[in-house]
Specification:
The chain is α+β, with helices and mostly antiparallel strands. Strands 1-4-5-6 form a 4-stranded antiparallel sheet, with no helix packed on it. It has a 3-stranded antiparallel sheet with strand order 7-8-11, with no helix packed on it. Strand 2 and strand 3 form a beta hairpin. It is elongated, with a radius of gyration of 25 Å. The N and C termini lie far apart (84 Å).
Length: 138
């Protein structure tokens, strides 16, 4: 009778191991497929700096978003360009062009747009915005 119990325990253990391996594989595949990995925006020859707990990230199409200090995406990349957060808001645009600073030999550039607006740390457009009248960020 002990032998039968041992066979039963071995079969149960094998089945449980297969289930665990199967579930682990499914979870791994699901998490890898749905995870989005963005690069840190490059600024001053390195990764963007953290400002008010967030730093800029960029997707493969060059769109700007924001991540927290742990690397978790807070605002998915969707802006043509965006500046770091200051005073709880960030200046962003959905259009414009990257322009080189004259005489910089490609070392310095700025973003020119006629459609700047501000977002909060959740990515919502801010009301009562104090938008700059110029086309570029100071």
């Amino acid at each position: 009778m002990t032998l039968a119990k041992t066979d039963y325990q071995m079969k149960t253990t094998r089945i449980m191991n297969k289930i665990i391996i199967y579930l682990s594989a499914v979870l791994l595949l699901c998490s890898c497929g749905s995870a989005r990995h963005y690069a840190a925006f490059q600024y001053d020859n390195g990764d963007d700096y953290v400002s008010e707990g967030l730093y800029r990230i960029v997707d493969q199409k060059g769109r700007i978003g924001y991540a927290d200090e742990t690397g978790k995406t807070v605002i998915r990349p969707r802006f043509a360009f965006g500046y770091p957060f200051e005073g709880g808001k960030a200046k962003v645009t959905d259009s414009g062009k990257r322009k080189e600073v004259a005489g910089s030999g490609g070392e310095h550039w700025y973003w020119e747009s006629d459609d700047w607006y501000y977002i909060d740390k959740q990515g919502n457009r801010c009301e009562n915005q104090d938008t700059d009248k110029d086309k570029t960020h100071p």
